[in-house]
Amino acid sequence: MGEIIRSYNWATSSVGPVDSWPQSLKTALSIILHSKFPMFLFWGKHLTCFYNDAYRPSLGDNGKHPSALGMPGEEVWPETWADIKPLIDSVLAGEGGTWSENQLLPIFRNGRMEDVYWTFSYSPVADESGKPCAVFVTCTETTGMVKTMTELKESKNLLEFAIDATELGVWDYNPRTNKFTGNVRLKEWFGLSPVCEIDLSHAIEVMAKKDQQRVTKAISDALVYELGGKYDIEYTIIHPATGFERMVRAKGKVWFTEDHEAYRFNGTLQDVTEQVAAQAQLEEIAEKMQLAINAGNLGSYELIFETGEIVATPQYKLHLGMATTEPLTFTKLVSLILPLDQEKVQRAVQTAVDQHTTFHADYRVTASDGSIRWVRAAGNPVYDDQDRAVKMVGVTLDITEQNEFAEALSKQVNERTVELQRSNDDLMQFAHVTSHDLKEPIRKIRIFAGRIQNELSAVLPEKGLRYLEKIQHASSRVMQMIEGILTYSEVNATKPEIEKIDLNKVIEDVETDLELMIHEKKATIRKVVLPEIEGTRVLLYQLFYNIMNNALKFSKENENAEIGITFQYLGDRVPAVEIAVADNGIGFDNEYQSRIFTTFARLNSKDSYEGSGLGLALCKKIVERHHGTIRASGQPGEGSVFHITLPLVQG
């Protein structure tokens, strides 16, 4: 940056040639250029921009560098000027420096608008007379940190949710103090007082006598570095007040220093009372399962991988169309499967084994009588202590009749699909006819209203003529709405038509449709002449209708509503425009900036303010569909401002 500054033609800039620079500017630049910390300088009346090498990455690979150098601040930072200019003015007014931490300031870089977070300080630079003449900025981009902290917070919330959802007790034991802490659930199980730390001996006393010595030894073994620091044990807790017995499983890990000294031991406690009780019923359940298998005409099997032997029930062999007394191996099974299905079955078995998942396959076999039968098979791999698959255990079902039925049903579905397509075409034709029929009565209203105006204007009072004009205008708007809705419904299935949109006309249409509400709220709408942009007319109308409708709906009682609409271009090199819609309504707290655009989100009572909670969510969707951004800011009782950034040209 020092080289770039030296080669810059400063004679054409507002600061003049280098040899005319004051010492205060040279000193400030010396500090900036020799620093490895990101720094920026707004100098003089025009707030001319300087920055160092450490600051350059924040400008993006395809952003404001090097064109920002020597340019007025307002031209370099149009997208954030409304936020940072008051800070600059405060510093130059002699009110001292500022400090902002993790502040969201979206900027245009890398070819698009990005949400960027900054931690920065603004400090005054004094001229030779001692008065502030420039603003010295030290800053660092914290976007990555903010996103990381957000993700960590979400992960923490997910962890807490998982612990709560799985009903786990959580404990943390300090071997040096022999104290441990636990969550509320764990303390309730042990009948312990809700103090921060608990002596381990108090917890041991609550355990069943038969388990106390075993648990104590397991804890001691876990604290020995050479034994791996793992802890996994089941024991019974007897609540000291109620006598309720609860079987729990404790799992934990010990953390050691570099000197192999245990400094932390934490883990979870799971209530397995029901699981243990269920284990006692396994034999009964297994017997009932066998009855269910028989009743469901299911076959069952065990495939031994090492030998290829298949231990199968007679029903499974019948499914294969073979004799129940005939021995069965995996090789024999593959020979019965049709060649087209053999690879599929073998691949499904291998995938289940490799990925520890359930095996599923439908395949065809050639029965001993020459007929083709369909078999549906499922199973689970069984592994040994070394995680080697030793066998597959599962069930089979003869689905020959089901497949024959499915084929017949598929034929009927295809025939029905043709009928539905024909009906759909008829409905489309009906939509066009209906739209035409809706237009006709509106057209007649306009014709006869026009005749009244032309033929009876001499005898009608002025108020009657005004009413006729409103009828004409309203019927015209209804006609446009019918055509717009029909057009939108047609393009919604494909790609909406992009056209040049006069935003002034859009706002006028919104004002007309909100006329009664504007009158009721005694609202004043102040607006500047807006530019033309490319977009979809019906969507942009809906966007500004929702925002202005919200401004009126959330106006203050006993105070006339005010809406202001302004805009600014985002620099000559940025083909975009930012439109601001401000109101003097009830406002909102800025901590809800992102929540207000969430579907069905409401910040106010539905009894006080009507609405579905979809309006602003729809606005966000419309803006994103136009490749733009929308954000809001406000203060309770002081109104709100919506900032809408839209490209001038759709790509």
From TrEMBL:
One Pfam family linked to the record: HATPase_c
InterPro entries linked: HATPase_C_sf, HATPase_dom, His_kinase_dom, HisK_dim/P_dom, HisK_dim/P_sf, PAC, PAS, PAS-assoc_C
Keywords from the named record: Kinase, Phosphoprotein, Transferase
Catalytic activity line of the entry: ATP + protein L-histidine = ADP + protein N-phospho-L-histidine
Domain called PAC: residue spans: 231-284, 359-411
PROSITE patterns per the UniProt record, alphabetical: HIS_KIN, PAC
Domain Histidine kinase intervals: 433-650
Example of a GO MF term: phosphorelay sensor kinase activity
Superkingdom of source: Bacteria
First-level EC class: transferase
EC number(s) on file: 2.7.13.3
CDD domains according to UniProt: HisKA (cd00082), PAS (cd00130)
PANTHER family named in the record: PAC DOMAIN-CONTAINING PROTEIN, PHYTOCHROME-LIKE PROTEIN CPH1
Name of the protein: histidine kinase
Lineage: Bacteria, Pseudomonadati, Bacteroidota, Cytophagia, Cytophagales
